[in-house]
Amino acid sequence: MSALLQVRNLVTEFGGGKGQPGTRAVNDVSFSVERGRVLGLVGESGSGKSVTGFSIIRLLERPGRIAAGEIFFDGVDISRNSEEEMRRLRGKRIAMVFQDPTMTLNPVLSVGTQMIEAVLAHESVSKEAARQRARDALGLVGIPSPEERLAAYPHQFSGGMRQRVAIAIALLHKPDLIIADEPTTALDVTIQSQIIAEFQKLTEEARTAVIWVTHDLAIVSRLADDIAVMYAGRLVETGPVSEVLNDPRHPYTAGLIASVPSQNHRGERLHQINGMTPALNRLPQGCSFRTRCERADDGCLVMPELALAGERSFRCIHPVTKVSAS
Amino acid sequence: MVTSIIRRLIQAVFVVVAMTVIVFIGVNVIGNPVDILINPDANQAERARVIAHYGLDQPLWRQYLLFLQGLLHGDFGNSFVYGRPAMGLILERLPATLELAISALAIALVFGLPLGLYAGLYPNRVSSKLIMSGSILGFSLPTFWVGLMLIMVFSVELGWLPTNGRGPTLELFGVRWSFLTGEGLRHLLLPAFNLALFKTSLILRLTRAGVQEVLPQDYVKFARAKGLRERRVIAVHVLKNLMIPVVTIIGLEFGSLIAFSVVTESIFAWPGMGKLIIDSINLLDRPVIVAYLMMMVLLFVVLNFIIDVCYTILDPRVRLDSKA
Ligand SMILES: Nc1ncnc2c1ncn2[C@@H]1O[C@H](COP(=O)(O)OP(=O)(O)OP(=O)(O)O)[C@@H](O)[C@H]1O
Ligand code: SF4
Ligand SMILES: [Mg+2]
User: Which domain of life is it from (chain A) (predicted)?
Assistant: First the structure.
């Protein structure tokens, strides 16, 4: 069985066009997600995680555009879909939860209106039935007294509550794929656990596939089946979560893992990756990570190909091995 | 909601009282009506009689109290020029001006909103650029010149539309209106367009700016991510946010429409308040000036009140803040 979502050599550019290359926020990215599985997409700020998500659901802001590649969803290349075909997928089969919950809900419309319209966009049910669905969805994400909350406006909710409303909206149609862009960053730990449990249930029972974008490796290790590490628009390492986290190959992945506090012993200095994320239009020649990499040498002046090893892949000519890392 | 309305009403009363003082003092400082009212050849006794008749010999504070007392009875005194109640004169002319202003506002909305929306949604199209350039013309061409051009083209050259007056009117709710008769409507068309030109440009540009501010917001993107039809995204999510600044401006500009109607009324010989007030100022016809100014105060207070109510309906954040 082929994967539900297969992204192949995706390139997303801002600006450019007509032979002119733009800024490549997503560069030659390939990955796949199967039904009922969770892919953790990690990487530093600006590495292109959100742009990848918006490319899949085709909601890139101008001047962003998909410059190359294919996005197969349930066997169809949706990167070539018409706008109306995309609309019918959005919210219904592919849902997205945005990164910043403060502005995802329209300030002048009640939460109920915004949920009911989401139901009615894809199903011709009565308004009362849609309302019932909205109420249930709010209850599902742990919002107390959902009936009253439907009449409330976004500014009457805290940031965390708003994010839960956004998640409830994403769950309304039991989509095949949810792109969750740092959905729990704004939430406190107990609610975070609750939401994660909700997603786990969803993947098990409804076989929903999830792309979970995050900085938080702890969440990835709890929730995700696979991990994809992004750096400066490219995937630098992919594979099953446990293998990658226990035995990273790419120096960047190793750096990320080493900088998680719980990975260190008490009193030991926290490891940090040297330097700053380079600007996309001023990437170093060859491997993008070269200027920050301790293992770099002249061989890294050429962009390394993605090396495949079983279920895993990495983009590095001097990969870390468990022996050399410890 | 109710408390906020009551609070607004009390504020409005204060505004009106404050304005009576300002208006009263203002008109007492601008020249001496005695000079106009009285024939320079009149003798001393004659002078005194006229002054006493109009209460101009009383101390200022007494004049103010008399003035207030009159106000409460809707009595602004008789016009020095026409010898008839000043408020009656204003009220006679009010419908003509209101009709002109409302028509102009309607035209400005009917053209400004959709064109602004279009130019905001498709900023790179040639047609959008044409619309925006056109709106600059609408801003910068002087009203009187456009009025004259309209007369030249549509009345003199083409002979399609009449140039002056209100034409036949029909009575509705005890007031005479031009728009109820076909011929009256034809009379209304040119002056209304003339007056609307500037406001159309204003609403157009405001709408476009609003669209460009709202479109990149996350909530618009999220509305699309829910799979809403583009029509609903624009008509509900974008437009509802857009209406907040537009309603504010419309309310405020309606007042200035009435004020600016002076020029248009003069060019098209439209028998409204604008013409009357210009004549009254020239002749220092104090009761009429005062009645006009108080009418304007009342109008603005009522307008602001309506804007506030619209605001509360449109913006839930205001609604709750006033409750708290
Ligand atoms: N509207 C835009 N116009 C131009 N460039 C953009 C735009 N949006 C994103 N980019 C570029 O794409 C790159 C990737 O952005 P993206 O939002 O995907 O990062 P991210 O990995 O989600 O980071 P974060 O963790 O901060 O959310 C950024 O470096 C930015 O330069
Ligand atoms: S290719 Fe070279 S520079 Fe790039 S990560 Fe590997 S060792 Fe470092
Ligand atoms: Mg992001």
Answer: Bacteria
